[in-house]
Amino acid sequence: MKEGGLSKQQQKDRIRERYKGVDPAVLEVIPAKKQPSFYDDVPRRVAVYVRVSTDNINQTSSYELQKTYYEDMVQRHENWTLTEIYADEGISGTSLKNRDEFVRMIRDCKEGKIDLIVTKSVSRFARNIVDCIGITRELKALQPPVGVFFETEHLYTLNNDAEMALSFQATMAQEESHTKSNIMNASIEMRFSHGIVLTPVLLGYDHDEDGELVINEEEAKIVRLIFFMYLYGYTCQQIAETLTKLGYVTKRGRTAWSPATILQHLRNERYCGDVLTRKTYTPSYLNHKSKKNYGDRTQHRWKNHHEAIISMDDFIAVQHLIDNAKYGNRGILPELQVIREGALKGFVSVNPRWAGFRDIDYEVASESVYGEGEPVPAEVTEVEVNRGEFDFRGFEIARAQFFDNIEKTSATFTIKTLKFNKTCLQKLENTQYIELLIHPGEQLLAVRKAAKDHHNAMHWASPCKKGGFAPRFITGLAFLKTIYALFGWEPEYRYRVQGVRRHRNMESVLLFDMKETEVYIPQATLLAAAEAEPGERNRNVQPVVAHRSAVMAYPSSWANNFGSNYYWHSQARELAAIDNAGVWQISEEAQPCSTTERKVTPPDELVQGIHEIIEEKIQEVKADETVRTAGGN
Which residue spans of the chain are classified as CATH 3.90.1750.20? Predict the structure, then answer.
């Protein structure tokens, strides 16, 4: 077959003819400039970079030896001029953060002050492969280019074949840092697990010959003053101003106190005799950024590790106050309150503005009102059917969730908000404020009217312009996390629960069975679950109805039935016990739970302690002034 008039063989012959060469008489070759080599004896302005990775005093000799060695090295080259030795001491090489001298050196290169950088090794220059390759490329692209010579590896970055070797060496340097980081973490973990904990310098304590914390009584007075003032209601800002004015000195010798310093002391568990390890950790060995440990790393709490300055109860009280300061709470510590008599016996009143209570606190408070042997929750008894009565054994009461009815009494929970529908408002005769009560053992939620000034009142409705009331979202940042924990709910899910009203003697209460919930699962969560391995999938819920952003699901236990047994339903706690004659008392006020009381220092003792410590300091200052005045005379 011919193409363009030439056969395939003719085309091959023409190509061969073209590559036989060109007559040297008609071709002039202009050679490129010779690229300067590291060993060329040409004038160079040389910078030396020196780094030691710790500021330990033992590293000082290494630091000085490096500087002296490279000064001599530069002097041996006649055409080299030492511009400066840039030295970072006590800085890690895995990040440019805090490597001020290194950054200044690169800046000087860009300003045309340096022709060559000499350093001991790749690991001294950078232990991060991205930084190492990126910076050397950047220096090579300058006009004129700046080269880096790594003495140990015998690498010069302006050589054309240097980058592959440099990439390998930089990778090894980075991995060496990674290995050291893992070894250090393992060592720390072994120390902690064997009770060898770190005890850094801390106000109120000194170290004995064994490195253990012992109380420094003079400094301990400052610590007590800080805790006493905060318990009494002073803010961190007010405490800092007071200590500064009185002339107290920090552990580091500073006379100016800041609110952050005060908060740091208030949060330190060492003041109550305990030691908590790993409060922060470093996820990446490359950037060294610390992060608060919220269960991401193993922690150890050593109780009664040393003598306490502050009682455990006072310390816990302070932590509760700090946690709840963002919700506007200051002053007196609240207590969990539980109903002791009536149909709502064992229900615990929810404080909407206090985040200090845990799920276990609610459980203990509820159980405290039951006598020994009294069932909690109430047991369902076996049913016997008499002759002539309808036998409903085997029949089920269908769940209300299966019927789409806008008139249903329902409440919707998220981890941050709670909202009751309009039917709930109507059932409680359009009151604006309610009290929320929980029975942890029976997993029931009760809602009843409350006065606006009730200590646990929640604003659940707002008046409409056209009359009546409309539901409003209840912000539950302080208590909804605890409710989710009580009922074993997933924080990212939204839950809807159906309720019933019970009414007697002109009084009403709404009751919700928290075990019978509809669950709204985000689509993103379902997609992630679908991609998971079969053995890792969550089978507690099965999707039923798809919404735009979520899928409605029901507990898998509902799969084989329509609802609860007829007789069990008739005995259900939220339907039966509350209807029994003589146990109504629906307005029974919740009473403080004695099991949740802590022996927090009472206000009068706080005032006395604050006064004594401050007065002692004032007298001490006056005595010092007297001595100075006498000395001046």
Answer: 205-327
Nearest Cα residue to 413 out of 425, 405, 421: 421
What is the pLDDT at residue 404? 55
Cβ density class 293-312: b for 16+ within 10 Å, e for less: eeeebeeeeeeebbebbbbb
Q: What is the percent of the chain where pLDDT is above 70?
A: 68
288-293 contacts at long range (C-beta below 8 A, 24 or more positions apart): 288/92, 288/94, 288/95, 288/97
- Report the first-to-last Cα separation within the chain, whole angstroms: 122
- Residue ranges of E strands in 350-506: 396-398, 410-413, 417-420, 433-439, 444-449, 458-459, 461-463, 469-471, 474-475, 494-504
626 confidence band (pLDDT: 50, 70, 90): confident
Host H or E run for residue 555: strand 550-555
H-type helices in 21-128, by residue range? 60-75, 100-110, 122-125
Cα–Cα distance measured from residue 280 to residue 296, given in angstroms and rounded to the nearest whole number: 10
Structure tokens at 512: 């919700």
- Residue whose token pair is 């409440």: 411
Collapse the DSSP code of 617 into the 3-class scheme (helix H, G, I; strand E, B; otherwise coil) and give the result.
helix
DSSP 212-270: -EEE-HHHHHHHHHHHHHHHHT--HHHHHHHHHHHT---TTS-S---HHHHHHHHT-GG
Contacts of 493 (CB under 8 A, 6+ apart): 519, 520, 521, 522, 525
CB atoms within 10 A of CB 232: 14
534: preceding bond cis by omega (within 30 degrees): no
Instruction: Tell me the per-residue pLDDT of 398-456, one tens digit each, with 9 for 90 and over.
Output: 555 555 555 788 999 999 999 999 999 999 987 999 999 999 988 999 999 999 988 88
The DSSP string of 395-438 is -EEEPGGGS--TT--EEEE-SSEEEE-HHHHHHTTT-SEEEEEE
The domain defined by 205-327 folds into Hect, E3 ligase catalytic domain fold (3.90.1750)
Q: Which fold has domain 44-178?
A: Rossmann fold (3.40.50)
Lowest mean pLDDT among 177-181, 352-356, 468-472: 177-181
Distances (CA, A) of 622 to 221, 239, 504, 615, 616: 18, 21, 71, 11, 10
Q: How far apart are CA 447 and CA 483, in angstroms?
A: 15
What one-letter code names the amino acid at 267? R
- Going by C-beta distance under 8 Å and a sequence separation of 6 or more, which residues neighbour residue 474? 352, 417, 418, 419, 458, 459, 460
Region of poorest pLDDT, from 271-285, 529-543, 612-626: 529-543
What region, left, alpha or beta, does residue 36 occupy, with left being phi > 0 and alpha being psi -120 to 50 degrees? beta
Q: Give tens-digit pLDDT for 376-402.
A: 544 444 555 555 555 545 555 555 555
Q: Report CA-CA distances (Å) from 210 to 199, 206, 216, 369.
A: 11, 11, 16, 49
Find out whether the peptide bond into 144 is cis, omega within 30 degrees of 0: yes
Q: What are phi and psi of 503, to 5 degrees?
A: -135, 135
Q: Is 390 exposed, middle or buried (0-12, 13-18, 19+ CB in 10 A)?
A: exposed
Of all residues in the chain, the percent with pLDDT exceeding 90 is 26
pTM for the whole structure: 0.49
Query: Residues for the chain: how many in total?
Result: 633
Using the structure block, give the residue that is written with the tokens 């220096």.
139
Residue 263 confidence (pLDDT) above 50: yes
- List, for residues 485-495, the tens digit of each pLDDT value: 999 899 989 99
User: What are the structure tokens assigned to 492, written together?
Assistant: 């990212």
What is the token pair recorded at 149? Answer: 């010579």
